[in-house]
Amino acid sequence: MHNIVEKIFGWCYPLFKKWGFEDTIASYSSLLINIFILCFLAYFIYIVFKFLLVSCITVIARKTKTKFDDFLVSNKTAKYIAHLIPFLFIYKSVPIILNHYVYWESKFGKLVGIYIVVLILWIVRTVFNSLRDYLKQFSRYSDKPIDSYIQVIMIILWVIGVAVIISKIFDVNHTELLTYLGAISAVIILIFRDTILGFVASVQVSLNDMVRIGDWITFDKYGADGDVIEINLATVKVRNFDNTTTTIPTYSLISDSFRNWRGMLDSDGRRIKRHILIKAGSIRFLNEEELQELKKIQLISSYIDARQGEIDNFNINNKVDKSLSINGRNLTNFGLFRKYITQYLENYPGLNKDMILLCRQLQPTAHGIPLEIYTFSNDKRFENYEYIMSDIFDHIFASIIYFDLEIFELPSEGKKVWETE
After folding, report:
1. Which candidate in 130, 139, 268, 370 could, as Cys together with 275 as Cys, close a disulfide (CB 3.0–4.6 Å)?
2. SS3 of 407, please?
3. Three-class SS state of 251
């Protein structure tokens, strides 16, 4: 390579000297001609290699089954490589063209060398971007923070590249430069603190499978409630359900508490857990006439018959005085209502009967006795889930009157009507 470059650019000066030109004129004339030749050859090499590389990679991408080479084309890797080749030629040619101009040879050589380092890093970046796009095609990688890992690798490469550039500019030995960098490592750590914390967090998030792209998360501290659309080295982007975007520091995912709804989405149902408050004063024992009326409710008719038979046998065998309802065993309107709601839930088509399904009484409060529905809907989609839950409670509110129960409500103040004379 060196011999070829010497033959291309080394003929001008001897020729001008042979023709009798003075040394200065021969030197400057040779320099101008060589610069023109260098520019022409560099551009020619760029055009040729751009055509060859782009054409070859495009043809290969069309014929191969893998999509990786397609992503190399879309990320313009071949174009940047085509830029690199003529600059390598220029880098080799500079010492010969500027042989008699030591100062400018040093300066120009450093500039070309710096550009080559930056160009190499840019080529590596396009390769990694192509690899990222290729891996994200597969479901097992689509939810991994690949961008974070690529960013870390590129930061390391850029640090190395900057070290090489500094060593070229100031003619510092690489070993000495690394020693200096070690001495100022505390400053470097301070500068890249968020990056380091983000990298550690992204690794932990990935290894522990805490968050994936596409997960629905709720992070009250940052007001986030929606789907994860991007996991980067420093931030996690969440598209909220109102179509706003919330940016969360990646490190917060391991330092703070948040809710990931993936388990619910992967399960067989979405939980319904809601209660109403029953006035304690409306709960009472039922008499025979009321039981006969409630038997008309088909869902609990057979239950009332069976249960009342057991209760009557118990009371007769134990000679219970039924002149007072409190004596012996009795059915209550609240107990029958709970049984009715349980039967209603078991017959409701939108619920998963293979999961927990119950209507239970919770600890009494100052506002009444909570009656809680705890079950799971078959449909986990937000709008359908809300419809199912609302439909169930619509029925509960409408049916409670048949059991002579009352729902607790805070008393409302009547509006005052002011009369004017």
Report:
1. 370
2. strand
3. coil
Query: Which two three-digit tokens encode residue 165?
Result: 């550039």
CA 127, CA 120: separation in Å to the nearest integer?
11
Write the pLDDT tens digit of every residue in 125-175.
888 888 888 887 777 776 666 776 777 788 778 877 877 777 777 776 666
Question: Encoding tokens for residue 69?
Answer: 């080479």
212 burial type by CB count under 10 A (0-12 exposed, 13-18 middle, 19+ buried) = middle
pLDDT digits (tens, 9 = 90+) for 376-414: 999 888 889 999 999 999 999 999 999 999 998 877 655
Which two structure tokens, joined as six digits, stand for 345? 């839930």
For residue 298, the one-letter residue type is Q
Alpha carbon 397 to its chain's center: 40
| Cβ 12 vs Cβ 33: under 8 Å | yes
Mean local confidence (pLDDT), 23-31:
64
Mean pLDDT, to the nearest integer, of 196-225?
81
Q: What are phi and psi of 143, to 5 degrees?
A: -100, 10
Which one is predicted more confidently, 11 or 223?
223
CB atoms within 10 A of CB 77: 23
CB neighbour list of residue 108: distance below 8 Å, 6 or more residues apart: 94, 98
Contact call for residues 201 and 251 (beta carbons, < 8 A): yes
List the structure tokens of 397. Answer: 């509110």
Could you give the CA distance from residue 234 to residue 195 in angstroms, rounded to a whole number? 6
Give the residue with greater pLDDT, 31 vs 351.
351
Between 33 and 253, where is the model more confident? 253
- Are the CB atoms for 154 and 125 separated by under 8 Å? yes
Sheet holding 358-361, edge to edge: 270-278, 369-377, 358-361
Please give the backbone phi and psi of residue 277, each rounded to the nearest 5 degrees, phi first. -105, 120
Beta pairing, strands 259-260 & 235-240: unpaired
Give CA–CA dist 246/223, Å, rounded.
7
Question: Which residue from 135, 174, 132 is spatially nearest to 153, judged by alpha carbons?
Answer: 132
Tokens of 234: 């420093």
**Phi, psi dihedrals of residue 193, rounded to the nearest 5°:** -60, -50
**Measured distance CA(129)–CA(224) in Å, rounded:** 28
Residue 27 corresponds to which amino acid? S
